[in-house]
Design a protein that fits this description.
Helices cover 34% and strands 19% of the residues. By secondary structure, the chain is an alpha/beta fold. The strands form 3 sheets. Strands 2, 3, 4, 7, 8, 9, 10, 13 and 14 form a 9-stranded mixed beta sheet that branches. Strands 1-5-6 form a 3-stranded mixed beta sheet. Helix 6 packs across helix 9 and helix 7 packs antiparallel against helix 8. The longest helix has 18 residues.
């Protein structure tokens, strides 16, 4: 039976982050104040989107602050949040049936009018309340969204993005582009970067530091890292390859989308939000083609949960960026 409930609870509060609203508000304030100084003065004028991580706040909360501090909240009434699906198989994109999402700070109302328009396209699957509350990739952004837009009457449009091809990413991007192009609309893209270690079944490794033509290998108990390039440095190399591809300019969004897909096919880097990133690239490419826009994407923070030295270690990477288009 498909249960419909108006309120999605803050299901990961008390585990992935504190359930105490005042404590959470204080943590977010501390992290936002600590972010910077950046190369460009905060907030970034004309900032239309951010990419930020979604791990437990003890791990990625400080890194995410660099993205959220970039946001110019002036005139924003609606925030799209695109996150990957970790808990249910999805070949397209899914939208919530709820009317509000709860956070320990305060509720966030959903833009049910826009969600109904998306539903009417026939391109979006409905999401059950169980699937909605099991997924953390969107929830981990809700307190930051509520905090940064404090006192503003905003609504959110959460979209879970499944394991879709580059072509389908581009198709959903084209569909969402007219919404994201509105002056009163902002977009948050939820993604961690490399999940490295045997527990993630991913041990891709560069034996030499960049620049190098030395091919990558998979580390194992019989294949050890070289003294020349510690594992954490190799992970940094790998992630920064993706970040360089996604940096706009010099590339166009359309070129970056193709290069990012080729990079993922080659390295299999475990960037869990690769498909939401692909949808945003698709939207920006659509606007390049139809409106002649010249998007910018700039990375402002990169961190790793720990510094891997041996095959027994593991880490997750976190990267934050702002986008103008």
């Amino acid at each position: 039976m498909h249960i419909v409930r108006d309120l999605r609870t803050a299901s990961h509060a008390g585990d992935w982050y504190t359930a105490d609203g005042s404590e959470l508000d204080s943590e977010l304030t501390t992290w936002l104040e600590a972010a910077g100084p950046a190369e460009d003065p905060y907030p970034i004028k004309g900032c239309k989107a951010v990419i930020a991580p979604h791990a437990g706040y003890a791990y990625s909360g400080p890194a995410a602050a660099w993205a959220y501090k970039s946001i110019d909240t002036t005139g924003i009434k609606r925030v799209f949040i695109l996150g990957p699906s970790h808990h249910f198989y999805l070949q397209g994109c899914a939208i919530s049936s709820c009317k509000d999402y709860d956070t320990p700070i305060d509720k966030l109302p959903l833009d049910t009018e826009i969600i109904e328009e998306l539903r009417q396209t026939g391109q979006f699957e409905p999401m059950s309340i169980d699937a909605d509350e099991a997924e953390h990739s969107i929830e981990m952004h809700l307190p930051y969204v509520r905090k940064v837009f404090a006192g503003q009457n905003i609504k959110i449009v959460p979209i879970v993005v499944g394991a879709i091809s580059k072509e389908v990413e581009a198709s959903f991007g084209s569909l969402l582009a007219p919404y994201l192009d509105r002056e009163d609309t902002f977009c948050v893209v939820s993604s961690d970067f490399c999940h490295w270690g045997t527990r993630f079944s991913y041990t891709y490794y560069y034996p030499e530091a960049a620049p190098s033509n030395s091919p990558a290998v998979k580390l194992s108990r019989s294949t050890a890292p070289t003294p020349a390039n510690p594992i954490h440095q190799s992970i940094r190399q790998l992630d920064h390859e993706a970040m360089d591809i996604l940096t706009l300019p010099p590339s166009s969004a359309e070129t970056a989308h193709s290069a990012f897909a080729a990079y993922l096919a080659k390295t299999k880097n475990t960037i869990c939000g690769r498909h939401p990133i692909g949808v945003l690239l698709g939207a920006m490419a659509h606007l390049e083609g139809t409106k002649g826009t010249h998007p910018s994407l700039k990375w402002v923070r990169y961190e790793q949960s720990s510094a891997c030295l041996t095959i027994r270690d593991s880490s997750v990477s976190y990267a934050s960026a702002w986008i103008r288009f």
